Amino acid sequence: MSWGTELWDQYDNLSFHTQKGIDFLERYGHFIRDRCLIEMEYAGKLRRLVKNYQPKKKEEEEYQYSSCKAFKAMLCEVNDLAGQHEVIAENLQSDVIREINYLVKDIKEERKKLLQDSAKYVAMINNQVASLERSRKNYEKAFKEAERALDNFQRADADLNLSRAEVEKQRMNMAIKNQHCEESKNEYANQLQKTNELQSQHYKALMPEVFRQLQELDEKRIRNVRHFMAHSADVERNVFPIINKCLDGIINAANQVNEKQDTILVIERYKSGFEPPGDFPFDDLSRGGESTPLVLPGSGNTYVSSGVGAHRSESMTVKGTMSAGKLKKRVGLFAIFSSNKDDYSELPPNQRRKKILLKLEEMQAKLHQEIAAKDGLMKMKGVYESNPALGDPMSTEGQLNECSQRIDKLNSDIAKYQGLLQEVECNVSPAGIRKHELTEHNGIGNGSTNNLSNHNNRLNTSVPDGRAPLGEDESLSRSASDSSVSIPAVGLNNRYSGETVSLGASRNSLANDEDPPPYYDIHDLPPLGTCTALYAFEATSEGSIPMFDGEQLLIIEQDQGDGWTRVRRQPPNVEEGFVPTSYISIHSS
């Protein structure tokens, strides 16, 4: 089907139709443009939403819980989703909108040229038809004049009263009119022939060619509309895999939420280390007003009971007990210079212990950095001494002195906080650590550092790469990171019924300076029994191994009092290392 043959007489309608097609193409381009704006706006709002809900610096401590960590991970995935919507908008702009604009421009230019040609052809045929009509009218006029001249000649020839000269005059007039009529007739015939030829060419060749080109132009427009629609869908489909990965990341983050773990973290964060207060004594009025002292265990507050009433003595008060809210310290000018909050004395024992451990870990990290910087300066000095052309060795003396001073300051601060840690652990109530650890703490002078080294020696002995075990400083940092989890073992294992197992207690579990027992090859130690993993454990320390919930393991060495048990995987995947004792249930053999 062709427009040139089927629509030969619909020039005006075809011109209107092609213009409507161009308008539709422009409208589709505006639709894609507006959609890009919406995608960019949506992406911007998503990013703004993620930014508004990012944890503030003061809220970082709250984000140690698994639900908060999952929410933070979800925010990252939503931010990536926003990026994919930006990709959609950018690709639509570069691949679709730009091509539509080029196509609209080309179609408009081609249509304009074709319409100009068709207008020229129409003008030609109209001019020819007008010439034909003029020649026809001239022929008609000449024919009528010839007829009148013939009639006048016949009347004059019949009239006997007219002279021969008059008759001859009418004859000559008739001949002239007949000749003029014949000429008009020939002109009319020639114009008619030209008009018919031009009309045939107009409707069979010229205009059909114009219509054919208009048809191809319209089909090109329709074909490109189909291509643009399909390509727009492909642009969005191409980002689906990444969007699905983002959604999978949100699901994985949700699966990491562990209500039991969060409960343990809440206990570790807010546990004071005090025991509940004892019973109120009976006031025996028959004794004549004698008072019986009532002491709240672990608080240091003494209440004196008497026959009239009860009042609290002005003895020591530890913040965090029942009476902490009533304590008001007198603050003066000298208190600004004498107050020292670095020892965290205002916190309950368990929270103070945790803060001190974090402070020790932070100082150990700084100490490692300073030692590494000093080693670098020493190497640089050695290079300068061996080759003075590279630099002056004395130029590093000032930096070395400053680095040494910082190291000495950090060592003194570490010793200070180790003493505070020992003081806190010696004063903590039995509810905070295990009973046998309390007995080992009595009379310890520098037990914290020794315990850290002994615990890390146990872990590092089983490292297969033969690296040297961590020193005292590194063991302190290592144990500080292990102390971040405290798990109540009541009901989990008969070994620790009614006790609290703390991974951080490994610092104080070994009170003597005896060398750790020797370890043998992984296959030499016979298993002492079996155990089942109660929780999944991710190995973050050297010498420890990961385990999943419900895994069956062989016990190679019992807990030595530091909260760790040495286990071995069952064949064929033989692997040996330490796991938290509170994370396993030991089967009685």
TrEMBL record:
GO CC, any one term: cytoplasm
Biased composition (Low complexity): 447-461, 477-486
Start and end residues of each F-BAR domain: 1-262
PROSITE patterns: F_BAR, REM_1, SH3
Record Pfam families: FCH, HR1_TOCA, SH3_1
Keywords assigned: Cell membrane, Coiled coil, Cytoplasm, Endocytosis, Membrane, SH3 domain
Keyword tRNA processing: no
GO BP term, example: endocytosis
Coiled coil: 97-201, 400-427
Residue span(s) of domain SH3: 526-589
Subcellular location(s) of the protein: Cell membrane; Cytoplasm
Annotated stretches, region: Disordered: 439-490
Family membership noted in the UniProt record: Belongs to the FNBP1 family.
Protein name as catalogued: Formin-binding protein 1-like
Organism: Aphis gossypii (Cotton aphid)
